[in-house]
Input
Amino acid sequence: MRSPITHRLLESIDDPATLRALPRSSLEQLAEELRDYLLQSVAASGGHLASGLGTVELTLALHYCFDTPRDSLVWDVGHQCYPHKVLTGRREALRTIRKRPGISGFLKRDENRHDSFGAGHSSTSISAALGMAAAAKQQGWRSRSVAIIGDGALTAGLAFEALDHAGGIAADLLVVLNDNGMSISENVGALSQHLTTQGRSSVADSQGFFKALGFSYHGPIDGHDVDALVNACNELRDAPGPKLLHVITRKGRGYAAAEAEPIKYHGVTPFDTEVGIVGGKTSAVTYTQVFGDALGELAAADPRVVAITPAMREGSGLVAYAKRFPDRYYDVGIAEQHAVTFAAGLATRGLRPVVAIYSTFLQRAYDQLIHDVCLQQLPVTFAIDRAGLVGSDGATHNGSLDHSFLRCVPGLVVMTPASGAELRAMLRTGVESGMPCAVRYPRTAAIGVAAADQPLPRPLPIGRGELVRRGSGIALLAFGTLLETAHDVAEIIDASVANMRFVKPLDESLLLELAKQHDILVTIEESVIAGGAGSAVCEFFAAQGIEIPVLRLGLPDRPIEHGTREQCLQEAGLDVPGIFDAVARYCAVVAARRSPGNKPLRMRDNAMFNGVLRLLTRSQLG
Output
């Protein structure tokens, strides 16, 4: 058992100003205390661990040498920001991280004045810091800008666009390259190989690489030598022009288990630091696991199937697939745009690529989806994980927009499975359709999972839903995994339930049938209401000249912040009580507008509607 470490120095730090008042000789001790505090806090609360353990000394040196927040530190992604949060007045709040109403696991401008730029996605830091540097110059401010970016995030095109621009305008900007050889998985690509095999041993090669982009290169230096880091930061702080400081760190530094398995300790649930993470898998099968297993089955049966991921092998459930089919698996690094156009290129030669990507990360490749895949009608299947609310990762990772931004793209089929079995069927439907297809599913345990030895279901008829419960008066139209919630509401109010399955194309014959047999339709989706599946239903009825009340339920027009998935669904009004209340209020509106001259309603058998009508009648009678 380790000897306990006291946090005497750390407890005296309320903000970076108090840090800068310390003697430089105390920084090494402070680093030990900060690392221990981080480990104990995240082990108790859960969150991102290994990245922050690797940036303790770097964080201390930057805040010690720069006049933050007047000088801006722009952290990339935010996985490594926990030490920064501790030093900027959020030490005690760290134990609440990613929990409601605690602090965010990422950077947020409205959370703390030292968070100069919000982040949750990667590769934004250089662009943002360059904008700050340019603004300071234009307005005559004495303010320095520092971008801290990992070697994994540096693979994205956005980072290179920013480097090229910074070098072109000779901006006073410091880029700190935190090189630990990792993103979440091991880094891939030629740049990573260059940094590893040349940048760490041959300064001249690295100087030439970054000099070509207009940067002066410094390093590489040991990112765990706080004294060397302070020397470098002091030397570069006021040097003019674009500068790059290459820092070598170890992900998981100071905790042997995390150093040995940085992927496992990238993001953790609560664990005992003396024992380490044991097991790590829950018994519940997730939609991500269902996807990975189903893709393996498809690949075994069809040699055309190829999997592509932008640096999300573990998160997208592709670990087993990558081992089983190494020649039909491509990790392209953090390069979402390239992933999609690369898939399009594969498809032109007869392959059936499947791009495994998170909903919010697909936003980065929207033009490629439209221009390179759908306009050419290439058979690329998008397996869109983390669709809907993701819980503790919060607003930057919620897949809130994909119904809206996907359904407007010509030629794209958009599917929303309500169960694990449907996800399997839809994945096969997409791969075998010969069309651009998207299958979106949430970050949650899957329901209706078939046994592992069951063959894949047959492809689904495209654009065909199903009436799964017949009730009276009200029909609930469920798009995706809220079907089970819709069933629970329907049991209370005796409503019909339709499993719509397809956001595009809609099952128009089913919609016409529902409109004929019901007085109120309620669409339910785990995506934003504006422009979503409910809007598609309303557009269809408007085009047909059919007047029927349609209540659209989905995510509100505001970000849903971090919390448990259940808390987030409750805030969005997409749990059973929330849907029940919304339907009751809408029934009241419809009932209040009913007049003797209107078409007779068929709601007489619906308990909710008649209960609302009786209450309205009593209030009107006084």
